[in-house]
Design goal:
CATH class of the largest domain: Mainly Beta
Largest sheet: 16 strands, mixed
Distance between the termini: 30 Å
Number of strands: 16
Order of helices and strands: EEHEHEHHEHHEEEHHEEEEHEEEE
Strand content: 35-45%
Structural class: alpha+beta
CATH topology of the largest domain: Tumour Suppressor Smad4
């Protein structure tokens, strides 16, 4: 296990032990570690280093076993997703999840991803000094999360939790292509380039959506099930989404084309509700999305391609604490 302990002898009893999770594959990770040591010199802290995709949940469980209750990740939405699933996995087995134990921990973010979309909705501190202030004052939010059930990349039944956004259709296709794209351009530019390319090749899917008193069947470009407001590096696709309302925002982007995208891009970036006959908004605690034309319907969760529909999502109200 890759861990560096950094302990301070004179600690106040009310100061939290903090685990920091750092990706050693990113630039300037050593400076991040140095800065954390400087700012949090009066805390009892430990560093856990991720070395590959999917490593973080194992490190989270190790940190919990060593007694850490504040779990802070340096990264973007994908890293936050792994942090969340690592925490829940530490207190789950085949029969139950111990939410009371989970609530003894608080998650935090050092925003260092490309878009930091979840942080925009959470309004988390953007620097270490602000994060330290929130921890000292125990300024936290107890937020909703989504539980998604789907088919993984090998078509096996799977489930995963998320805090920001899960979507099916073109969005899933975009992130699947991003995984194969050569990493020559910056990620934000690569993302926009792949979106535009996909518009010219993507064949819209026929889907069926059922959700309480709302149903839809027809052709879609994308269906977004949102807890947060933003995804895709600052696209405000779910303007009315709230992290603590006990509901998911379902945004149906129907038979839209590239001209619709370009025409309304400014409004989406401003997180405005779109007045368009092929855009529908709905709120619900639960939603099921299936393909109506037997095509594979890719699923994107927090910027990562995770598998395929059928997709079922349930809102779990106010389950996870975040420093904010």
């Amino acid at each position: 296990m890759n861990i560096e302990e950094y302990k301070v002898s004179s600690l106040h009893l009310n100061m939290a032990d903090i685990a920091f999770f750092i990706n050693k594959n990113i630039k300037k990770w050593e400076k991040t570690v140095f800065d954390i040591k400087e700012v949090f010199s009066d805390f009892n802290i430990g560093f856990f280093y991720t070395e590959y995709s999917g490593h973080l949940p194992d490190l989270v469980q190790s940190a919990i076993q060593q007694g850490y209750h504040s779990l802070i990740v340096s990264g973007g939405d994908g890293s936050i997703n792994e942090l969340l699933n690592g925490l829940i996995g530490a207190y789950s087995d085949s029969s139950r999840t111990d939410w009371d134990k989970i609530a003894e921990h608080t998650l935090g973010i050092i925003p260092s991803g490309t878009g930091n979309d979840f942080c925009k909705s959470l309004k988390c501190p953007m620097d270490l000094t602000g994060l330290k202030e929130k921890i000292n004052q125990q300024k936290r939010k107890l937020i909703d999360i989504g539980l998604a059930e789907f088919k993984d990349k090998n078509q096996l039944d799977s489930k995963r939790y998320y805090v920001n956004i899960t979507d099916v259709g073109m969005g899933g296709d975009v992130v699947a292509k991003l995984e194969k794209e050569r990493k020559v351009l910056p990620k934000a530019l690569r993302y926009q380039t792949v979106i535009l390319k996909t518009f010219f090749t993507y064949q819209k899917s026929q889907v069926k959506i059922t959700s309480g008193d709302f149903s839809f069947e027809g052709k879609i470009m994308n269906v977004v099930v949102a807890n947060g407001k933003y995804f895709g590096n600052g696209l405000g696709v779910a303007p009315t989404a709230e992290l603590q309302d006990g509901l998911m925002d379902i945004v149906v982007l129907g038979d839209l084309g590239i001209w619709d995208y370009l025409t309304h891009l400014g409004q989406v970036k401003n997180c405005e509700v779109l007045n368009h006959r092929h855009v529908k908004y709905h709120k619900s605690k639960e939603v099921v999305i299936t393909s109506s034309d037997n095509r594979q319907l890719p699923v994107d969760m927090d910027g990562e391609f995770i598998g395929y529909a059928p997709l079922k999502i349930i809102n779990l109200s106010q389950r996870i604490y975040f420093y904010s």
